[in-house]
Every structure is written in C-alpha cells, then in structure tokens.
Design brief:
Blueprint (H helix, E strand, L loop, with lengths): L1 H17 L3 E10 L2 H8 L2 H19 L3 E6 L2 E6 L2 H17 L10 E10 L1 E2 L2 E2 L2 H12 L5 E4 H6 L6 E9 L6 E8 L31 H13 L2 E5 L6 H10 L9 E5 L9 H9 L9 H9 L4 E6 L5 H14 L3 E7 L9 E4 L15 H13 L10 H10 L4 H9 L6 H5 L5 H5 L15 H9 L4 H10 L8 H8 L4 H9 L4 E3 L2 E3 L2 H13 L3 H17 L21 H11 L5 H10 L1 H6 L3 H18 L5 H17 L3 H18 L2 H9 L2 H6 L3 H18 L6 H13 L3 H16 L2 H4 L3 H12 L3 H17 L3 H17 L3 H18 L7 H15 L1 H12 L3 H9 L17
Parallel strand pairs: 4-7, 10-13, 10-14, 11-12, 12-13
Antiparallel strand pairs: 1-3, 1-4, 2-3, 5-6, 7-9, 8-9, 15-16
Helix pairs in contact: 3-4, 9-10, 10-11, 12-13, 12-14, 18-20, 18-21, 22-23, 22-24, 23-24, 24-26, 24-27, 26-27, 27-28, 28-29, 29-31, 31-32, 32-33, 32-35, 33-35, 35-36, 35-37, 36-37, 36-41, 37-38, 37-39, 37-41, 38-39, 38-40, 38-41, 39-40
Length: 890
C-alpha cells in the first residue's frame, strides 16, 4: 500500500514538472458515438480504444504535448506552442484516417483547442480556460477540429486555414465565443453546425433544397441592413424573395444578440391577426385584457434583433402599422420584409429582387438560372449528371421562365418525365410547363403553380389595372408610356403605377416589362375576358406604325433606312405576324412583312420570311379577305427576293412572275419596274449572262420611258456586276456614276451604298488601291452603321482583297476569315464574287504559308461583323503609307 502511494506521488511530481505554464494551449479529444461503437465492436472495442490512444499519443507527444489526463475515450493535453498543438491535431486526424480499424469502423474523433494563461497545480490545472477548451471540443463533430479565436491569432501554418463558424454561447459561459474550423488537406470539410452549444436564438425555416447563386444580392442586402432599419425585398410572386431573405438572415444570426425571428403573414387568417402571427414567431403569449401590439412593443424594447417578415402584401396596411410601431419602440430592431408591393412607410428602403442570372451557355460557367435547373434535373434523375448536350436546351427553358426561381423549380419538376429537349420544345406555353405542381405539404398553396402565384396578386387589382395587365400581355417585350396610353385609350399613369407597385410590371430604362410567366397568365385572362381580338388588333396597329417609323422621320418624311431600328421591335412584329396569319387581318400581316423584307435578308432569316408569307397567303384564302393587287405584287416581290437569297431560283422566278402579273393588274409602272429589276440577278447566278444583261437593259429602258429610273436601281446594280465580271470596267464605272444620284435620292436604298461597293470592286480590278480603299470604307461604314450585316460581310471580303493587293497579307487573311464567318452565320452565298475571293485567298495563302494563313483566318472567323469592320476601317489609307508616291522624291 505504501509503495503504491509512493509510485502515484512520483508520477504526479513527474507530470507536474513537465506541464507547461504561462500561455498554454489546451486540447481535449473524444470519440463521437463511442457507446454505439462499443456495441458494434464488442470485444474488439478495447483494442480499438488502445490503438486510438496510441495514434493520438504519438502525434501529440511528438509535438511537445503533455498528457494531463486520460478518461475512457477522452484525452486531455497541454502544449506550450499553439502552432505545435494545431499541427498535432491535423496529423492525428490524418493518421486516424490512414489506419485500418477493426470491422472497418474507424473512430471519429472530435477535437477542441483553446489558448489562455494557466499555471499547473499538483499535476492539474484549475482555470476557466480549461473548461472553455472542453466546451469547444464538445461542440465539434467526429473528424472535426474546432478552435477559439485565441488559437487562430497565435498560429500561422502553411496549408492550414480557418473557417469562421460565427459566435456561439458555450454551456456554462455567459459571453459568446467565436469558433473556427481547422481546414487542411486530408481533413473533412463539411460538418453540421457546432453541436452541444446554445446558439443565438432564431426560428428560421430550414430549406429542403440547396440555395443557388445570389451572392451579389446577399452582399447588397447585408450592406443595406447595416445602415437601414427597414429594408423591403420587392418582387413578383415566385421571384425567390422569401428564400433569399431566409438565406441572408441565416448568415446574420450571430450579429443579433437577441435573435433572428421569422414570421409569414400569409398564415394570418385576416388583418386583425398579424400581431398574433408575429407574437407566435417570438414565442409570446397574448396577455389577458391587453392588446397584443403592446405585448410585442414591450418585448422588443431594449433588444437588438432582426425580424424577417414574409408576405407583407397579404395585409399591407395592417403590416405597415405593425412595423411602424415596432420600429418606433425598439431602436435596436431591424426589419427585413418581403412583399409584392411597397408598404409606404417613412424610412422604407425598396430593394427590387432581380431574376436569377441568365448568362448564355458558353460562358466559363452557366448562369444561376441554368445551374438551378441542372441541380434539380440531377435530383429528379436520381443523381445522374446533366450532359453537356442538354445545356443549350436548359438555357432555353431558363430564358422562357425569365429567371424566376419558382417557375424554374416548377419547370424542373417536369424533368422527371421529359428530357431537356422535350421540355424546351414546350416553353412557348409557360403556364403549362409550370403547372406540374409540387407537393401540397412542401410549399404554401399560393406557390404550388405559377398560375396560383400570379393569381394571388391579380385578385387585388383595380379594374383598370387588371385590364391593362391583360392587354399588355400581347406585347413580346418592353413598352414605353406612350404605347401603354395607346393600348389603354386613357391616361395610363394610375394603372401603370399600380402594376409596378404590385411587381406585375418591371420598370426599367427601356420602359415597362412584363415577365414571361406573368405574361402567360395575363394572356389566359385576356382570352377568358373575351378581349383578345381587340387587344391584338391594337397591337398589330402599333406594330405597323412602329415599322413605318423606321422609314420616316418625326415629320413623316423618308429617312435613310437603318435596319437597326427594326432590331428592337422584331419580336413584336413576329407576334403581330403570328396573329395576322391565324386570326387577324392577313392584309395587315403582308404590310408588316413588306417592312421586314430587307431585315430578313440582312439577318440571315430569308427562310423565316418565306414561311410567314406562305402562312399569310393561306390566311387570305381562308378568310376571303380582299387584298389590292399592288399589295399582293409587293408581297410576291418580297417573296421572290427572299427565295433568291436562299438560292431557291425556281421559286424566285415563280413569285417574280406572280408579282409581275399583279403589278400589271394594278397598273403601277414603278412597282412593275421594281419587280422586273430583280429578274437579272437569278439569271446571273445560274450563269445565263446574256439573258441577265438583256433583262437588265430592257428594265432600265422601261424605267426611263416611264419616268421611274430610281425604281430600276437593282437592275443597274446587277448590270454593273455583270460588266465587272467580264472586266468591262469603264462601262461599269460610267453606269454606276450615273446611278449615284438615283441611289442618293432613295432612302430605302442609300444606306447600303451599293454604288460605292461595286465601284470599289472596279477599282480593285484596276489595281487602284486609293480609289478602292475610299469606296469600300464608305460602303462598309454605312452598311455597319445602318445594320446591313450580310452586305457588310460582303464588303469585308473586298477589304481583304484590298489588303492583299496592298501588301498586308496577314490582315487580308483575318478579313477573309471574318467574311466567311459572316456568310456562314447569315446563311448567304458569295454569288458571282466567289471565284474572285478564292483567287485572292489562294494568293495570300501562298505568301503566308498554310500554318500562318490558317491561324489568321481562324482569328478572323472568331470576330463579330462589327469587330471585323472596326479592324477593316482601321486599315491605313494607301495614300498615307510611306510607300505612297506622295512621300517619294524624283
């Protein structure tokens, strides 16, 4: 007995001699789930426990740690050096993972570190620092290393970083400790929130799906909440307001000592119960004989807390009164509210939630909207990843849903049944795609389909605003205030303001825009109200006026046609064509098609134009509508030219003859000349040069006799190209010089500067680089500025030849690549110029060699027409080059 006591005293003295003092780092470890592990391993548990102690002991002792105590699966060590203690923990976790364990069940060890002043006494420490370290270890999960801010401030280890887990109240301590997770290679990274600690109170709902994107939005809102006590997240139903607010609030829990509290006013049965709804969220019971609002006001007085108030638009007046009272009584109260309309409170900051990002496929990563669809599609398919070939279709779906998170979630539910391509093919009916519905238990009733979501707001609209919403659904894009006034036929300010306030219209720099899911809903309401015909006919009238304005100035006088004026309204004109080809006036549709003639050609959409025209012809026959011969002739002529662009020469000639017959019936010489002017081009394209020349000359003579020479310009251009082709350059130049004033006098033609383009080709054949450069630069600049993109691509080819002849082969190769890429994108052919381009491309290739030529050609192919034009227009004028005769001496 005496000997045993002596040995124990000897051990205690030895330990006491080696225990560190001063600034000490304490480490506690234990095995997570040790009781369950003991039951699983049975007799093997004892050897596993001993091996676990050996692994940890080697790592800790090797780092200079002094063992203070061992109790079951728990170890307590003290270190003089915080960095050594941390490094030992990382090494110990790695060693545990590397070892083979009985039954394949490794012990999952949790570790906690804290540094503070301490002195050993009789082989142990008596200080709160030890207890704090023990509580930190208790907060960890198996495989996780947690430490305090004191440890983080004292340690710098290569390859080791710290994840800030926020402030937590440790059991037995009144203050809060900021906990950090040790992050290092070989250690697990993902763990639940720290356990066994009293976290700052909150009642935020726990999402069942992961949160996608919104990083910038969270940063913006966080900054606003730091300086504003009332921030209202505004947006339409399904925009993701609630999810964003909850996600943001979850990251702010540690910043509010008295908690973060969530209340959804949609659960209140009526306006009188909004205070009760909030009291329930705060855990308050109504006091007998006392208004609930007074109970709430007393509770928040002197507290610093964040209230997340959802669906404030359910009872906007009552909610606004409640928030106003709380903000007045509690200077430490901050409110983050979500609503579809402003609350109208003094000091209210409105923050409108944007849709999820819609970056197109091809960026470094898909946009957030597409990412959400990818995640949900993988979940719907049992974890099978989305193929790269599906991204374009998912991007189409995301765009059709306008980036609205709820619409995306509902559309993604369809991916359980449909492929991405099948779903994308159905996005023209947004509500049908999003009415798959979700489980009634998972979301509020108002969010189970997009139809019910929008209906929640629609039912609150005054009659004028509801009618305006329905009638604006026929527009495909943004509208300005003047358009709204035309559609409504009355002062639009009040109804527009209502729709914007209720997030059913989005106000931006382009005017007022309706999101596609809302448009789809409003379109159904329009049909149900029996107002579709009148609304769509007004839209057609607006489209005809808007199309005419591309050809006229503010005083109604013709201006140089710029196809860029048609780009912003192209979708509107398509919507009008869709209506006129099915239910509306085919005659009005043919008028719109005539306005789009050159736009279709210059955007590579000739086939689309022909399709619309065929539908309109069918509509004329089906409806029995009377269309004047002159208008039919104009439509047939447009069809003929579009067919020629597509290389359908038989169809081109067929509709040219139809147009000629209709023009004769209309007795319109100018129209007849314009139609006949197009006859030479297809003949030239198929090699019938003599026939093409005869037709052109006959048409020019007819135009002169009838006094409509300007209407024969197309025949003049074709004849000039024919003369250029057979190198009759003087005749071509004379013809074009005489045509210049005719072109200048025709606003529809002069933006193309075809005279300058062909004169540039004539000068190239003459090797007159000065004249060629000047003509081609004028043509290219005008064509790009006025949106004649296929013509601009043609001019790039001519500029490439100019560079080739001017001793700039590398630049020539780039422009040849750009010209070919433009032809491919816009589905046009090089026509009679093809052999000329091939000849000069071969010459440039011979100068540069295959490798250099192909590299420059590829670089040019990657340029847009606008960027390639900028390169071409920057080419130095040949008369300014040092080799020019201007700078040489006799």
């Amino acid at each position: 007995m005496i000997a045993r006591l002596a040995r124990k005293a000897e051990v205690l003295v030895s330990v006491a001699m080696h225990l560190p003092s001063g600034l000490v780092t304490f480490l506690f470890t234990d095995i997570e789930g040790s009781t369950r592990l003991a039951r699983m391993l049975g007799a093997q548990y004892r050897s596993m426990l001993a091996d676990h102690r050996d692994v940890l002991g080697v790592a800790f002792a090797g780092a200079g740690g002094a063992r203070v105590s061992v109790e079951g699966d728990s170890l307590f060590y003290a270190f003089r050096d915080a960095a050594a203690a941390l490094a030992a923990c990382v090494q110990a976790q790695r060693d545990l993972l590397a070892r083979e364990w009985p039954g394949g069940h490794p012990p999952r060890v949790r570790m906690g570190l804290h540094t503070g002043p301490a002195e050993p006494y009789h082989g142990e420490y008596a200080t709160p620092v030890v207890h704090r370290a023990s509580r930190i270890a208790s907060a960890a999960h198996g495989g996780q290393v947690l430490c305090s801010a004191a440890v983080v401030g004292a340690v710098r280890l290569p390859g080791v970083t710290f994840a800030d887990l926020g402030l937590h109240r440790l059991r037995g301590f009144d203050d809060r400790e900021r906990l950090y997770q040790v992050v290092a290679p070989g250690l697990a990274r993902e763990f639940p929130r720290p356990r066994g600690v009293a976290a700052v109170a909150h009642n935020l709902p726990v999402p069942v799906t992961d949160f996608i994107g919104r990083g910038a939005e969270q940063r913006d809102l966080r900054a606003l909440l730091e300086r504003q006590r009332l921030v209202v997240v505004l947006g339409p139903g399904g925009a993701g307001k609630t999810r964003l607010a909850v996600e943001l609030a979850a990251g702010l829990v540690a910043d509010y000592p008295d908690g973060v509290w969530f209340a959804d006013f949609a659960t209140a049965a009526d306006a009188d119960l909004v205070e009760v709804c909030l009291a329930d969220a705060l855990g308050l019971r109504p006091e007998p004989g006392r208004p609930v609002l007074d109970t709430l006001a007393d509770h928040i007085t002197g507290q610093r807390l964040l209230l997340v108030l959802d669906t404030c638009d359910a009872f906007p007046a009552a909610v606004a009164a409640l928030i106003g009272r709380l903000l007045a009584r509690g200077p430490g109260v901050t409110v983050l509210a979500t609503s579809r309309e402003p609350l109208g409170l003094l000091g209210e900051l409105i923050w409108r939630i944007p849709p999820l990002g819609l970056q197109p496929v091809g960026w470094k990563r898909p946009g957030d909207a597409v990412t959400l669809l990818i995640r949900r599609a993988e979940a719907a398919r049992g974890g099978r990843p989305v193929a790269a070939s599906e991204l374009a279709d998912l991007a189409r779906v995301a765009a059709a849903m306008d980036g609205l998170p709820l619409a995306l979630e509902l559309a993604a539910a369809r991916l359980r049944v449909f492929s991405a391509a099948q779903l994308a093919a159905r996005v023209h009916d947004v509500l049908a795609v999003t009415d798959a519905g979700v489980s009634a238990a998972s979301v509020p009733a108002r969010h189970r389909t997009m139809d019910t979501t929008v209906d929640w707001s629609y039912r609150t609209l005054p009659a004028a605003a509801a009618r305006l919403l329905r009638w604006l659904s026929v527009f495909a894009g943004p509208v300005d205030l003047a358009t709204v006034e035309m559609v409504l036929g009355a002062d639009p300010v009040g109804p527009v303001t209502t729709l914007v306030d209720k997030s059913l219209l989005q106000a931006d720099g382009a005017g007022f825009r309706m999101l596609d899911p809302i448009r789809s809903y409003a379109g159904r309401r329009l049909e149900q109200a029996g107002e579709e015909r009148i609304a769509r006919n007004r839209h057609v009238a607006w489209c005809r006026l808007a199309a005419r304005q591309a050809y006229l100035d503010a005083d109604g006088r013709p201006v140089t046609l710029s196809l860029r004026a048609l780009d912003p309204i192209a979708d509107e004109l398509r919507a009008a064509l869709r209506w006129t080809a099915s239910e509306g006036s085919a005659r009005a549709g043919l008028s719109i098609a005539g306005a789009l003639d050159q736009w279709w050609r210059e955007r590579g959409l000739a086939r689309e134009g022909r399709r619309w025209l065929r539908l309109l012809y069918d509509r004329v026959v089906g409806s029995g509508e009377s269309v004047p011969d002159a208008e039919l002739a104009g439509a047939y002529h447009v069809h003929s030219v579009l067919a020629g662009v597509d290389g359908e020469y038989a169809e081109e000639m067929e509709f040219s003859r139809r147009a000629e017959d209709a023009a004769y019936r209309a007795d319109d010489p100018a129209l007849l000349v314009r139609i006949l002017s197009g006859r030479g081009a297809p003949l030239l394209d198929v090699g019938r040069i003599d026939a093409a020349e005869r037709v052109c000359r006959d048409t020019i003579s007819l135009a002169t006799r009838e006094g409509v020479a300007g209407d024969a310009l197309f025949a003049v251009y074709t004849l000039a190209e024919l003369l250029w082709l057979r190198s009759d350059l003087d005749a071509a130049a004379t013809l074009l010089a005489n045509a210049r004033p005719l072109e200048a006098g025709r606003p529809v033609e002069r933006g193309r500067r075809t005279v300058d383009m062909i004169l540039g080709l004539v000068a190239l054949k003459r090797r007159d680089l000065v004249a060629a450069h000047e003509h081609l630069v004028v043509a290219l600049r005008s064509r790009v500025v006025n949106g004649f993109l296929s013509r601009a691509g043609e001019t790039l080819g001519a500029m490439a030849v100019r560079c080739s002849l001017g001793g700039e082969p590398l630049l020539a190769a780039r422009l040849f690549g750009a010209a070919q890429a433009a032809r491919a994108r816009l589905k046009t052919s090089s026509g009679i110029l093809g052999p000329y381009w091939v000849e000069h491309e071969a010459a440039v290739r011979g100068v540069l060699g295959d490798a250099v030529f192909d590299s420059a050609y590829a670089a040019g192919s990657a340029l847009t027409i606008e960027k390639a034009a900028a390169v071409a227009l920057a080419v130095e004028h040949p008369d300014l080059a040092m080799s020019s005769a201007r700078f040489t001496t006799a």
